[in-house]
Amino acid sequence: MASHTPKPSDRRRGQTNSNATSKTTSAAPTKLERLVALLRRKGGATLEELCTATGWQPHSVRGAIAGTLKKKGHAITSERIDGVRRYRIGDPE
Do 68 and 32 touch, CB atoms closer than 8 A? Predict the structure, then answer.
C-alpha cells in the first residue's frame, strides 16, 4: 500500500499550513482611510486624486464621500478653485 498524502480538502477547519507566513502587525491602510487622509490635507483633494488613490470610479468615490464618510460624522466641503473641484474634510462632529 502506498502512503496517503493529505489533500488540501482533507485538512480540518482551523488548521493552517506550516509553511504559511504570518501577517505583519502594520496592515496597509484601507481605501476609506486613504480617502480620509487625502481629504484632511490642507488643500483637500480633487476627484481625480481620490480615484487614483483608491482605484475606484468617480461615482464610487462620490458615493463614499456622501454616504459612508458623512455617516461617520465627517463634515465634507467642496469648492471649485480655478475650475477644479476640491473636496475637504473637517473634524468629526
Answer: yes
Q: Mean pLDDT across the stretch 35-51?
A: 95
HSE of 90 in the Cβ direction (CA atoms, 13 Å)? 7
**Distance between CA atoms of 26 and 3, rounded to whole angstroms?**
42
Grid coordinates in use for 62? 462620490
Question: How far is C-alpha 29 from the geometric centre of its chain's CA atoms?
Answer: 6
Q: Which residues contact 93 (CB under 8 A, 6 or more apart)?
A: 73, 74, 75
In terms of CATH architecture, what is 28-89? Orthogonal Bundle (1.10)
Q: What is the pLDDT of residues 72-86, one digit of tens each?
A: 999 999 999 899 999
- One-letter amino acid at 4 equals H
